[in-house]
Amino acid sequence: MANAKTSNKPVKTFRFKGVAASVFENVSEDGESRFHKVSVQRIYKQGDEFRSTNSFGRDELPIAVLLMQRAWEFILERESAKPSDAEE
């Protein structure tokens, strides 16, 4: 079984007012196809420490939607680019 190429770093992160949407690119185990996943989180400070959660308040929901829309557009552009262009 071939190992899938994995990376813990997102290829792009969209941020606004403490909300972040990170786009991750994955490669199938056979290396033939690439696919994307998006992680959305809210970042906040508790004391001197920064923390994150996937729980959003009423006023953060539209921000999360906006950032997911931007992530979706980024993925569409990346997938429609030539293979050599997508790796930049």
Question: If you had to describe this structure to a student in words, what would you say it looks like?
Answer:
The protein has 88 residues and is an alpha+beta fold. The chain has one domain. The chain has 2 helices and 4 strands. It has a 4-stranded antiparallel beta sheet with strand order 1-2-3-4, covered by helices on one side. The longest helix is centred in the C-terminal third of the chain and has 20 residues, at 61-80. The two termini are 29 Å apart.
Give me the secondary-structure topology:
Elements: E1 12-16, E2 19-27, E3 34-46, E4 49-53, H1 61-80, H2 83-86
Summarize the structure.
27% of the residues lie in helices and 36% in strands. The protein has 88 residues and is of the alpha+beta class. The protein has one domain (12-83).
Give structural attributes.
88 residues, alpha+beta, 4-stranded antiparallel sheet, elongated
